[in-house]
Amino acid sequence: MKTRFFKKLSFVLALAMVLSIFAPAAGAFAAKAPTLNSKSKYLHLGRTENGQNEFNFNVNNKKKGWKYNWESTNEKVATVNAKNGVTTAKAAGTTKIVLTITDADGEELYQLTAKVTVRDNIETVKISNPVDTLAVGEEHDYNRSYVTEAGKTKGSGSVTRWTVEPATGATIDDKGVFKATEAGEFKVTARSFQSKAKYNSWLEDSVKYADYVLADDTTTVVVAGSMEGVKQVDLTKVNVTFNAAMDEAEVKENLKVFLLIGTAKTEQYVKSISLDKETSKVATVELYGEFNKGANYSVEYPDMENKTFKAATTNYKDVVKMTIDTKSVVATYVGGEEKEIEFTLYNAEDVDITDGTDADFGGKLADRVSFETESTGAYIYDGKVSIFEVGTLAEVKGTYNTYEYD
What we know:
Blueprint lengths: L1 H21 L2 H4 L6 E2 L3 E5 L9 E3 L2 E2 L6 E6 L5 E3 L5 E4 L3 E10 L5 E12 L2 E6 L5 E3 L3 E3 L2 E5 L10 E7 L4 E3 L4 E4 L3 E10 L2 H9 L8 E12 L2 E6 L4 E6 L5 H7 L1 E6 L2 E4 L2 E6 L6 E6 L8 E5 L6 E4 L10 E4 L14 E2 L2 E4 L22 E5 L4 E4 L2 E4 L8 E5 L6
């Protein structure tokens, strides 16, 4: 009885071992799914000599009896041979190559796709509208023309970016719009890149990625300052405002004032020229003598547009405003003396005409001013004020008299 039992058991174990050996063998020989030899491909127009304008898509894991049909979703960008998958670049852009696999009966089994990007890189670039000179603050929109590797003048997917040197004093945006805030000479460069990604890499390290620049062109522009305006200050001075910081030595050498009489002009003798210290944009020009009342003048600077103004007159009716400029006095009880009250007379254009002589009646305009005070502890006589005690606050009233002499 025991002998039979062990024989049956041995038979069952042997059978189990045979099954475990042959069962996985069937899965090991299952057919693999078809795949393309590339899922993404870059092609280049114009590179026909080294074949970079074409690519032959093939199928891995083919099976006997299958049929293959190739298509391009955008034949303007690239075409594909319907039978063999040879893809040819036609224009810059992207397209999909679609392979449809059917069996012998025409039933679709698989559909495979690949992305094709066609480049037509810029080979030469040229700044098409350079300028020699610009004024400070004046904008100029630079343009560029190019020729691609395929000999085309448009349709490239490449990008062009602009730079300006020195970077301080001027800016230029990605579209080529240039503007300078300072006078000087600036170098504008147009550089072409295959893509924005390559341009951004070049921005991070222009030395490491120097070969990302496909082509470049450079032009130079001289930006000159200009006179924004001229305003008379008083009877001998005029302020000239520039739109950029200027060099004082150059301004002293080049700035001229001319008296205009009809078509003739006479250069005026300049006593001094000084620039404001804060911005160096405002030049104060003082003549040795007074401007001719009501005469026309021209202020001139090389390579800048002339500015003209009409000198103020000093008729008594021209005065529209007066300021009292004296603000403090030393009290007489501590050694102080009477102090002349200083004041300024202005016309409607804020020109100081205090020292002017009335053209109609003669006499100084300043002589038409009188002062008075009602404050205790203060005394005014002949245009001079005295205060007797320290700490006294006196209110002084000034009157410009517009009476007419008979």
